[in-house]
Design goal:
Number of strands: 13
Strand content: 25-35%
Number of helices: 6
Bound molecules: 2-oxoadipic acid, magnesium ion
Distance between the termini: 35 Å
Shape: globular
Structural class: alpha+beta
Order of helices and strands: HHHEHEEEEEHEEEHEEEE
Radius of gyration: 16 Å
Mean pLDDT: 96
CATH class: Alpha Beta
Helix content: 25-40%
Number of domains: 1
Low-confidence stretches: none
Length: 241
């Protein structure tokens, strides 16, 4: 059953076609949903993708309120999701993509070596971007793409840096790294704990996305999207059709 559910989600992503929710009918609890997520990611790895890190989700109230799920979750990142800073995102491969501003950590020696402004592109494989907790876990927490800006040493305080999300030069969301579990560094600790609890040890060179500081915004062809994080700088991409 786990493999069949993973196949359904994998096909939905590969064909950019939304599917109905699946967790309730399959009786999936969060633990079973992480099994589906793992099987889904294994399909990507079998096609030649490599793991590049993990992402935290629903670490801010703004995000919990937007999707109606109020638990911290985590998912896998692969090199197939990476978009270069200032690069291009092909929207035709996605269903109903959204962008959100994040902070990324770079791992080294099991600690944080550097931090960067980042953007995540999320694209729920579920119709209407509507899901339960086990659904979104099984769907690899809606992960679809990510951009990391320039790395820099971790500044003294990460607990209250201003965050802006801009689309075509206009500010569309504002927030603070304080929105991320009170301090974005807590998201890193949660990643170590939650992924570790599922047997995934974070490796040197991996990145950890801390989770969005604001709600996500829908993407349209031609959108130029930029995250600005106080003291850290910017990360951007352009959505092409
Ligand atoms: C779930 C993923 C949440 C975040 O940063 O909070 C997430 C979703 O919003 O579809 O990535
Ligand atoms: Mg996110």
């Amino acid at each position: 059953m786990i493999g069949e559910l993973a196949d359904r989600l994998d096909r939905a992503a590969l064909t950019a076609t939304a599917i109905p929710r699946l967790a309730a009918a399959a009786g999936l609890d969060p633990s079973g949903a992480y099994d589906v997520q793992r099987a889904l990611v294994e399909r990507r790895l079998a096609r030649g993708e490599r793991l590049t890190g993990v992402k935290m989700g629903l670490t801010s109230r703004a995000k919990m309120a937007q999707v109606g799920v109020d638990e911290v979750i985590w998912g896998h990142l692969t090199d197939g999701m990476r978009i270069g800073d200032g690069g291009r995102l092909d929207l035709t491969r996605l269903i109903h993509a959204r962008a959100e501003p994040e902070v990324a950590f770079l791992l080294s020696g099991s600690g944080v070596e550097a931090v960067a402004p980042a953007l995540e592109v999320i694209d729920s494989r579920f119709e209407g971007f509507d899901f339960s907790l086990p659904d979104v876990i099984a769907d690899n927490t809606s992960a679809a793409g990510y951009v990391v800006g320039p790395w820099r040493p971790v500044p003294d305080g990460l607990d209250n840096l201003g965050v802006l999300l801009e689309v075509n030069g206009r500010v569309v969301q504002t927030g603070s790294t304080a929105a991320i579990l009170g301090d974005a560094r807590r998201a890193f600790d949660a990643a170590v704990r939650l992924a570790g609890g599922r047997g995934v040890e974070l490796r040197d060179g991996w990145i950890v996305l801390a989770g969005a500081a604001t709600a996500a915004v829908p993407l349209h062809p031609g959108d130029h999207v930029r995250a600005v994080v106080e003291k850290l700088g910017t990360a951007s991409f352009k959505a092409a059709s």
